[in-house]
Amino acid sequence: MPPSASARPEPDLHDLLRTLRVWSPDITTLPAFDPESAPTSPLPLFTTWFTEAVAAGQPEPHTMSLATSDADGLPDVRTVMLHGADTDGWTFASHSGSAKGRQLAARPYAALHFYWPALGRQIRLRGPVESAPSPEAQADLHAHSTGALAAALTGRQSEVLGSLAELAHASQDAWERARREPTAPAPTWTLYRLRPDEAEFFQGDAQRRHVRLRYHRATTATDWLRELLWP
User: Fold this and answer.
1) For residue 45, which of 230, 220, 211, 206 has the smallest C-alpha distance?
2) Which residues pair with 78 in a beta bridge?
3) For the chain, what is the mean pLDDT?
């Protein structure tokens, strides 16, 4: 008979970690990146890399880590979805009363991080964050799925939850309203825009000669300075 679950040895995390590879050639392609040919500003390069990540089959390339800090300066991080990127900045959304919403209200500066292991690429952005006008936030919300609206109408993000049954009841009510009123407003739903002061593009290399190109915003609003970083 197979050993019971209680009799099985506990896995050793360190042994397991040593068995794992980074950028296995079976699933990862490491393209060449010539920083000399990079555009003069980060947005066109971001658009190119994002498009290539989609073409490479990278799962959920539009998800990114959002790092903020609270009123005491303590860091926090979570995964959110990219809603857009243009010359005004990179946008994401949340409730203004959520943990990240409160943190951004207290300290309106954040960092974003994309990781696309299918191509061995990372992108890091840092800069001030501002809220878009409410009509723009509502229009963005209603352009997404019924599920997105239902989640926004459920609300109370980051509050203490009494039970999963309470969540199921509130969510069911929100789904019914979202189907009934596809343009129902979610007053606390906020569209945030990060306007980067700094953007770094990281291309992995099999010999660990990773290419890191960093953009710094210059004294003018539209000009950027570029520099290479040691890996």
Assistant:
1) 211
2) 66
3) 93
Structure tokens at 29: 């392609």
Interval 158-215: pLDDT, tens: 899 999 999 999 999 999 999 999 999 999 999 999 999 999 999 999 999 999 999 9
DSSP conformation class of 56:
T
User: Which single residue is written with the structure tokens 């949340």?
Assistant: 94
Going from the C-alpha of 77 to that of each of 56, 110, 149, 156, 229, the distances in angstroms are 27, 10, 24, 19, 24
pLDDT score at 187: 92
Helix, strand, or coil here: 100? helix
CA 50, 192, 99, 108 torsion: positive or negative? positive
Report the alpha-carbon distance of residue 200 to residue 186 in Å, rounded. Answer: 34
Asked if 11 and 19 touch (Cβ cutoff 8 Å), the reply is no
| Pairing status of strand 211-217 against strand 224-229 | antiparallel
Contact present, 88 and 27 (Cβ < 8 Å): no
